[in-house]
Design a protein that fits this description.
The chain has 392 residues and is α+β, with helices and mostly antiparallel strands. It has eleven helices and 21 strands.
């Protein structure tokens, strides 16, 4: 740890200053720890720094799928909903039927607008019958929720609490959690949570994560102890090969997981993404976008998300712009997320295309910054389609 200690010197402050988005971008409770452990690049997510680079995307991918990585995802801010009408209000925000959701359970939900477009795809945690956390993707849902609450006539209180999650993901994450919390952690079910403490640090721990691998999220409830929590987990995990890391574009595209603003936005509907299971337009409860989603369900969609295998040399990194797709000289859609998978030894991508071009085996032309290449529509997810790794 001598190298880590040396990074806590005045030179470390210079590194902090180099990231320099300004004081308007918030730092997480783990920011200094991630810099000490080698974070070399950040981006902004929910108005907060989020690490995007440690030792390179392929090293990060192999660390994730072979051992485990610890990721600062405090930028997944929480919208806390409390009050007598909390359950009704949360149901009003989402087309997923929450009537059977139990205290202690998590659910992946969509938040939809009046036209059925997706505003966010968060994880919902039910802490009590009148207490929920909405763990956000990158968009300002607290502002949306406050606007909805103003006119909903429901008795709720909305806030952003002092809650900052870490993700511990990968096949060794269970052993690391056992070392931290004892054998009882092995009984935690997929998409459930528990209130726990680690050396007196207050946490909510859930079997969730944005990796398609076995994993956990640790929701810190006291931001002053972020550095201590990070170092405690890293110390316990080092014997198991734990590395500091960042959310893996390679693994999430392999798993067909969405990145909001890339694969979906407010102009995308759940049915275009094949997420029918997250919509129940016939349920008794009302929700925003209900009539629009009923109509879309009856009429069908004009475009669909598909998986692609892209020919040519290995992509040097994820796409940073949308790539046009053509068929017979006509534009038929766009590539939303593309990356080279070293495990599959293929360029893989998620794309949105018109329905006639969504059939498996369809050949499309991809217009990349380096020229035109061919692609084939294939099944997605590209790896572990039944999520056996995450649920094992």
């Amino acid at each position: 740890m001598s190298n880590v200690t040396s990074l806590q010197s005045a030179s470390n402050q210079a590194v902090h200053d180099d990231f320099g988005f300004g004081t308007q971008i918030r730092k997480s409770p783990y920011f200094s720890a991630t810099v000490r452990w080698g974070a070399s690049a950040f981006s902004v997510y929910n108005h907060m720094y989020i690490p995007r680079e440690f030792t390179g995307p392929e090293d990060n991918f192999w660390n994730l799928v072979n051992e485990a990585i610890l990721c600062d995802v405090a930028a997944e801010r929480q919208v806390e909903v409390t009050g007598p009408d909390a359950a009704a209000f949360v149901q009003y925000l989402t087309p997923r039927d929450l009537s059977q959701m139990a205290v202690g359970q998590c659910k992946y939900i969509l938040i939809t607008a009046e036209d059925g477009g997706i505003l966010n795809d968060p994880i919902l945690l039910k802490l009590a019958d009148d207490h929920f956390w909405i763990s956000l993707a990158d968009s300002d849902i607290l502002l949306w929720a406050r606007g909805v609450a103003l006119h909903a006539g429901l008795d709720v209180q909305l806030s952003e609490p002092d809650v900052s999650p870490l993700q511990l993901q990968g096949p060794k994450s269970g052993e690391i959690m056992q070392a931290l919390f004892g054998d009882s952690i092995q009984d935690m079910r997929y998409y459930w949570w528990r209130e726990m403490e680690l050396n007196g640090i207050p946490l909510i721990v859930s079997r969730t994560g944005w990796s398609s691998e076995l994993g956990y999220e640790l929701y810190l409830r006291d931001g002053s102890r972020g550095d201590e929590l990070w170092e405690t987990i890293m110390a316990a995990g080092l014997p198991f090969g734990l590395k500091p890391g960042h959310t893996s574009s390679i693994r999430r595209i392999e798993g067909g997981m969405l990145s909001y603003h890339a694969d979906a936005d407010m102009h995308t509907t759940p049915y275009e993404l094949g997420m029918d299971r997250l919509v129940n337009p016939q349920m008794e409860a009302d929700f925003i976008g209900k009539s629009a989603l009923q109509r879309i369900q009856q009429e069908g969609v004009h475009r669909k998300q598909v998986g692609l295998e892209i020919e040519g040399d290995a992509l040097s990194g994820p796409n940073t712009s949308f790539w046009a797709l053509t068929h017979g000289g006509n534009t038929v859609g766009k590539v939303t997320s593309a990356v080279y998978s070293p495990r599959l030894d293929k360029n893989i991508a998620l794309a949105m295309v018109i329905v006639p071009c969504s059939e498996l085996g369809t050949q499309l032309e991809v217009h990349t910054p380096d020229g035109e290449v061919m692609a084939t529509v294939v099944e997605k997810p590209f790896f572990d389609p039944r999520k056996q790794l995450a649920t094992s």
